[in-house]
Amino acid sequence: MRILLVGGGGREHAIGEALVRGGAELYVVSKHKNPSLVRLAKGYGLAKETDVGKVLEYAEKFGVDMAFIGPEAPLERGIVDIFEENGIPAVGPSREAAKLETDKAFARAFMERNEIPGRKVFRVFTDVSEMRSWIDDFGKPVVVKPIGLTGGKGVKVVGYQLRDNEGAKAYAEELIRRDGKVLIEERTDGVEFTFQVFSDGKRVIPMPLAQDYPHAYENDEGPITGGMGSYSCSNHLLPFVTREDYERALETLKATIEVMRKEGTPYRGILYGQFMLSRDGPVLIEYNARFGDPEAINVLPLLKTSLLEIAEGIVDGNLGKAEFEEKATVVKYLAPKGYPGNPVKGVRVEVDEKAVEEAGARLYYASIDENFNLLGSRAIAVVGISESLEEAEGIAESAIPHIRGELFYRRDVGTKKSVEKRIELMKELGREFEPNPC
Ligand code: GLY
Prior knowledge:
single chain, alpha+beta, Dna Ligase, domain 1, 3 domains, 6-stranded antiparallel beta sheet, 5-stranded parallel beta sheet, 22 strands, binds glycine
């Protein structure tokens, strides 16, 4: 089966690797040539992922049987609908279903209208003075979000850091002037976690939970990025997420899929719930209509079931099972110095792939070209996989010295100290629980 993978980042490297392992003949289209995907693919086309016409031309030229869409931006352009109109089934939601990610006001209204568990109080404003007086009357901390896609990376905070409501009002005003509208939500305190599921529009197959480290610098400081690393545990939970929390979060995702189907916009693909574990349980911070990056790199190397079979099940509407190894994973992203605001670009990186392999780690290439020049975003993910989180973290660390260049990374991703910090935070919020082993 010939599959066209759209996208060339670390997430797509993990998807491409899993597809090939599952028996696919891989073709890729992305805006740069990812050094590993070049090796894995039988054919490679260069195009912006949002240039759907060009991507379709490549799909037809390669004679693919199916497509797998990595990033969100082409979903917003309706790539899945356009491919299907041209006889090529694609893994990913339709343009309408992808609005769960691409239109945050749509997502909140959907949750509210259908009483999806894990929802929050929200308002959409087009008028500055109405927005200001609502925030004053609300009297509780809020978050401010643009309605549309932000690229997730390096954006001036899309909300959760605006600790004071004066700052929130000023930012909301800026967004109304820029976009014509803004989303205001009640702020929820807690610890975030990622819950990704596969769905064929009816069935929902969960993947192991993961925790992302969105801040650029250690100790959760600095600007928000696409994610500087992430970890997952061998029991597929997280140390601070109880089995009951897990079931409640899964209920949110299952109810979402069920209602999308009933509303006539079946959701097929990967649904990613970004949850905040609050004092009272999981609250949905946002939906994403695709795998997380880096979280795909935590879960896909553990996938025992063929990703090709899963992809076929998604597009045919007969998704079966997905089994994952019971191992812990730690992903650490190396990013160019200055990322996300002012990254070094065009400088070569030296990677001793053999030494990384000997250290027991894996590499996933992202924003780096086939000559190993930095392109400005997160460049290389190093992954440790083992029985325990501590071992997995040690493996990832031991491989990093074999990559040299104008790069930085967060040493604290997946460390005992940083995990304990999150457990303590939940305890300070008044939750009583016995942390899960990891
Ligand atoms: N790591 C966050 C995301 O993929 O959106």
